Amino acid sequence: MRVAVFVIDGHDIDLYPDAEGAAREIEGYDAVSLDYFGADGTVYMATVERPEWGPVTLHRTQDNRLDDLVQLLRAEAEDRGLSLPPETPDDPETIWGALLAAQQEKQGRRRSRRRWWKRRAAEALPKE
């Protein structure tokens, strides 16, 4: 069974379809300093083939931090000033999807306001 994996570096969070995909994507970065959580809460540990650079492998551990992952994702939405729908369940992938949707909606409103201000500014300028 493939489990999606969250790669977390501070406030930078990415979701990959599985551990292999995440490992391929982070190859060459400081992989051992990042946090890895499966969407089911499983904690992963990274090993790098060479001391600083090289292929990365993510290994499942026996540790499960599902509650911590849910809290982290909800806190991330709050830190970004996003409101998740109240019916959003405590499922990491669902929370992540709702967070991204709320972020896109917020960015769309910002763009719309900018267009409105530009239009108003253009109308206010004297015509030559």
User: How much helix, percentage-wise, in residues?
Assistant: 40-55%
First-to-last CA distance: 68 Å
Give the CA-based shape: elongated
Compute the number of strand runs.
Answer: 5
Mean pLDDT: 85
Structural class: alpha+beta
> What's the alpha carbon Rg, rounded to whole Å?
20 Å
Number of individual domains? 2
What strand line-up does the widest sheet have?
2-1-3-4-5
Low-pLDDT residue intervals, each spanning 5 or more residues:
none
Number of H- or I-type helical stretches: 3
Fraction of residues in β-strands: 15-25%
Largest sheet: number of strands, sense, barrel closure: 5 strands, antiparallel
Order of helices and strands: EEHEEEHH
TL;DR?
Helix content is 43%, strand content 23%.
SSE blueprint:
Blueprint: E1 5-9, E2 12-16, H1 19-26, E3 35-38, E4 42-48, E5 56-64, H2 66-79, H3 92-124
Antiparallel strand pairs: 1-2, 1-3, 3-4, 4-5
Helix pairs in contact: 2-3
Protein architecture, described:
- The protein is α+β, with helices and mostly antiparallel strands and 128 residues long.
- It has 2 domains: 1-64, no CATH class; 65-128.
- 43% of the residues lie in helices and 23% in strands.
- The protein has 3 helices and 5 strands.
- The protein has helices at 19-26, 66-79, 92-124, and strands spanning 5-9, 12-16, 35-38, 42-48, 56-64.
- The protein has a 5-stranded antiparallel beta sheet, with helices on one face.
- Strand 4 and strand 5 form a beta hairpin.
- The N and C termini lie far apart (68 Å).
